[in-house]
Amino acid sequence: MHAKAVALTTRPEGMPTIEDFQIVDIDVPEPQAGQIQVKNLSMSVDPYMRGRMIDRKSYVPPFQIGEVLTGGCIGQVTKSASPEFKEGDYVSSMFGWREAFTESAEGVKRLGDIVAPASQYLGALGMPGMTAYAGLLEVGALKNGETVFVSGAAGAVGSIVGQIAKLKGCTVIGSAGSDEKVALLTTELGFDHAFNYNNGSILGHLKALAPGGLDVYFDNVGAEHLQAAIMSMRPFGRIALCGAIATYNDTAPRPGPNNLSMAIGLGLTLRGFIVNHFDHLADQFRSDMEGWVTSGQIVTKETVYNGIDQAPEAFIGLFKGSNTGKMIVNF
Amino acid sequence: MHAKAVALTTRPEGMPTIEDFQIVDIDVPEPQAGQIQVKNLSMSVDPYMRGRMIDRKSYVPPFQIGEVLTGGCIGQVTKSASPEFKEGDYVSSMFGWREAFTESAEGVKRLGDIVAPASQYLGALGMPGMTAYAGLLEVGALKNGETVFVSGAAGAVGSIVGQIAKLKGCTVIGSAGSDEKVALLTTELGFDHAFNYNNGSILGHLKALAPGGLDVYFDNVGAEHLQAAIMSMRPFGRIALCGAIATYNDTAPRPGPNNLSMAIGLGLTLRGFIVNHFDHLADQFRSDMEGWVTSGQIVTKETVYNGIDQAPEAFIGLFKGSNTGKMIVNF
What we know:
Chain A is an alpha/beta fold. Chain A has 9 helices and 15 strands.
């Protein structure tokens, strides 16, 4: 069997372009002993992948030119030569950016019973949801009733961060890049306040919307957002450093916040993390989040592109604010 | 009775100068009911005082022009109208920058039995020692056997940080501003490695001296030191943000570290603190530190100026690297 996949042709300089990617044909052979053949249903594009397109040492090794990209995906087993899987099983793996694959069963995780559309296991019920959950509750050490600010709040992670904080009785402020997204936050997603970061100074918005200051800032954006949040923190506030999408296409190092020393007098904690640091919480997360999603307490939003040919455009869209909620490519 | 004191005449711009200070005569009256009269023996000059000379909101209110400065000091009660104090008691207070004072006993703390020269209760056995202790063990969450870097390592705080870390079985690297100080660190104070930060790149020194990376960085200096340390941290490393003396005389905000987002993948924690956040550890600190100092396990260094007239020069010297260990003015 053959399938289409996406390879990296050139390392992007600044904003990625369609020309940095190429659709290629790959072989998807019959599974040998211990292998399974999987047809992907949905693949994820995520901001962190931009970092892997740079040839540098990082927490995940860089993508290689000419090779098929990898990333989160959900599929169904079509043929199994592994005792652990049978045809029709829903599986989660990192063999995204391709319509199908045959690989050792060891690199693939069975999803078991799913309680929502499969693609949501790439969003609220998957890596971004777990990132929100661990980042807010563990890294941010959220306490009931606190004031929380999340940037990129209409995105895959931010939209879940804000809703979990609301479930914990917090006052929640979100920033997003368009008036439409801002409206979504305060209506459908239940945020207390939201603002458009392309309209006015971020610090000005925070002063107006959180005059008493912030206890927790969940940072998906970095740059001006981070500096304004530091300026707005209450004593002993916590900043969960999750991402810095504003800087991912920078071609030179960007200076950091000029007010970091405010952390001294205020006793602030800034703590970086990636979701893998919290694998021990995976079962608890899935149980909690499936409950919240199926009961409607957490609303899940998706922006869907259809077909593998659209995957590069979906990825590039992440940096142009094209997505509301999780950006997904369905096959 | 009259005494000499130091008032602030102008708010320093950049590096403070002698002209920013004035020696004034103050009245030290007979104590009324509830008051005590104290003759100071030693006063402290500390880098944090530079921040109080700026007219801005901070964790301590700014000094006022024309008024006598305040700061840590050790004295002896000369007359008491309080049942809680008697003549000869050693006391600690914030009524420094003056030879003597009469104040309500409530603002003064009895030192009790002292096991070292009084001035050391302004250094290793006082605020700087407590800063080192709480910052390293609580904020830095030091574990035995880790690799620790402390900047400003020949100063009042840094010299104690490094020695506590050695007591905890750590590998300790220090930076200081002269070859003489560097030599002191690796000989008398027992550091494993030290370098002169005025000679070569800080990052280069760290790569050479800690090729396996740092678990804890205790930051007294900020600026280039902080950026180089972030670049050198091991996964899940901790940075205790204690001070940023390199920036205290800045006249405009200075950009922060351009690599702060490295904290994400590495799971780093940066946590600011001031010593007052750890008042609950004061008894434990004094007991531990008196033990270490009297047994010789911790060596205490002082740079001493004599007479209140020298206090402004001692203070300015903090920013010129004039001190090794605690900078003290004895009367």
